[in-house]
Write a structure and sequence with these properties.
By secondary structure, the protein is an alpha/beta fold. It is built from 8 helices and 7 strands. It is globular and about 45 Å long. It starts with a strand and ends in a 6-residue tail after the last helix.
């Protein structure tokens, strides 16, 4: 089973090489295709990537910053794996969790696996209460409209079978793609699992990018995609 690890990034020169090195350590356990999709970085991210081409299989460079969703879609298009795994470039999520995340595909014939930060016994950095509250409200609203009992819809670890992702049409360019994916797969007859993961969240001083505005957009997108077909 081939796993395509898609790493969208924007201005992550402090962490991009470190996360790629950690992902590469998992090659001993899995058949990985590592795809980096740079979303128009203006710092040294592109230079570092070009200097360390041994750490990935495919590099997608965008001239203009359009958002995480756009970078993810480009990665999906370039992928050839049976399972697609989204990996943030900021070191908040640990590739050591890959074994747990992939296990439901092997043992339970899963179609989708989400890594949840809120039902895990593993270490989780305690930071912004407002982010936890926003995540809780967004997840609750998603659950209400989909009748699926998610615990963490904004998680950066989402794994999906290739045929599942290729069967839905993704449109969002921003962080809103997280909501779009969830609302659209919820319309399909899929086996969805959650797995507890560790989480080393970062502060805004450390480079965190998601904002209050993104939270408001998420609520709007939940309603939008509740009334939209998975294939539109």
């Amino acid at each position: 089973m081939k796993i395509s690890v898609i790493i969208p990034c924007f201005n992550e020169n402090n962490t991009i090489i470190s996360i790629l090195e950690k992902v590469n350590l998992e090659r001993k356990n899995f058949d990985l295709e590592i795809i980096v999709s740079d979303d128009g970085s203006t710092d040294k991210t592109k230079v570092l990537l070009e200097e360390n081409s041994n750490l990935y299989d495919k590099l997608i460079l965008s001239e203009v910053n359009k958002g995480k969703g756009c970078a993810m879609r480009k990665g999906i298009e370039a992928s050839t794996g049976d399972i697609l795994l989204f990996q943030d470039a900021d070191m908040e999520y640990d590739p050591k969790d890959y074994s747990k995340l992939i296990k439901p595909f092997i043992e339970n014939n899963a179609d989708v696996v989400y890594g949840t930060r809120f039902i895990s016994s593993k270490p989780r950095r305690v930071i912004y209460f407002t982010h936890r509250l926003a995540n809780f409200l967004i997840t609750t609203m998603v659950n209400f409209f989909t009748n699926i009992n998610f615990s963490d819809v904004e998680t950066g670890y989402k794994l999906l079978r290739k045929e599942v992702l290729r069967s839905v049409k993704l449109n969002e360019n921003s962080f809103g793609i997280e909501i779009e994916i969830t609302m659209k797969i919820a319309k399909l007859n899929l086996k969805i699992f959650e797995v507890g993961i560790s989480y080393n969240g970062r502060t805004y001083d450390e480079g965190k990018k998601i904002t209050f505005k993104d939270g408001l957009i998420a609520f709007i997108l939940i309603l939008k995609y509740f009334f939209t077909s998975a294939h539109r």
